[in-house]
Specification:
The structure is a single chain. The chain is α/β, with parallel strands linked by helices. β8 and β9 form a beta hairpin.
Length: about 250
């Protein structure tokens, strides 16, 4: 596994790569969900490239960015075990030489659900993904369904800009108790982690969105939204200071 930190260096290496390129963009703090994407990429591609970049432009709260878990040493060990080809690990100035003056914006779906509670979040997501796509130039990119709104926005961005990249959606990987695997789960206290499964259990029930909200509120969650769109129920709720998202197909 090669670790590349400079855009120019990566581009030179990329020119020499033959065959299909699979790409898994991450913000590190890797878990089994990320590993499942990497395994799919390895099966579908000649070369698998993973990026680790904690993207500050998608955090609308400074404290949330500062508290995001960083586990680089462990991440590198896990990626070496998976025998990926390249880890791309750029700095902020490599990704944003313009200081984030230029950005990609979607004007409808990004303003709903998470976008309604995290202004500017998806501008940062779409911008960094566009930049990474232009650097990596993958044939296939893999994204988890846990961030389903993000997945749809990226799929539609690729379509809107005529980008020749296949976006592969991968099922949400869950803990045994149903909690969707997330890098943020490590921030939960023991008590918060104990009640976290209630999000998945509640939104999976054949009840109304309003009833599901009532149940979670009763257990102490601060619910941002529970909303069903096109047969899929989306949820975002805070336990203490940790915001968790999930979705299920009904």
């Amino acid at each position: 596994m090669r670790i590349i930190k400079k855009v120019d260096e990566f581009k030179k290496i990329r020119e020499k790569l033959k065959g299909t390129i699979g790409f898994v963009p991450t913000m590190g703090a890797l878990h089994k969900g990320h590993i499942s994407l990497i395994k799919k990429s390895k099966k579908a591609s000649d070369h698998t490239i993973v990026s680790i970049f904690v993207n500050p432009t998608q955090f609308n709260e400074k404290k949330d960015f500062e508290n995001y878990p960083i586990t680089i040493s462990e991440d590198i060990k896990n990626l070496e075990k998976e025998k990926i080809d390249i880890l791309f690990m750029p700095s902020y100035t490599e990704i944003y030489p313009d200081g984030y003056k230029y950005k990609v914006i979607e004007t409808e779906f990004s303003k709903k659900l998470c976008g309604a509670f995290r202004p500017g979040h998806f501008d940062g997501v779409l911008t960094v993904v566009m930049k990474l796509f232009n650097i990596i130039r993958p044939h296939i990119a893999f994204f988890g369904e846990k961030d389903y709104q993000q997945l749809l926005l990226i799929k539609n961005m690729v379509k809107a800009f005529f980008m020749d990249i296949k976006i592969v959606s991968c099922p949400t990987v869950r803990e045994k108790d149903g909690v969707a695997m997330s890098s943020r789960n490590v921030l939960l206290s023991k008590e918060e982690r104990r009640i976290a499964p209630l999000i998945y259990k509640t939104i999976s029930k054949k009840i109304s969105d309003a009833h599901a909200r009532q149940i979670l509120t009763r257990y102490g969650f601060k619910v941002d939204y529970i909303k069903t769109i096109n047969g899929r129920r989306f949820a975002a709720a805070k336990i203490g200071n940790v915001r968790l998202i999930d979705n299920v197909k009904l």
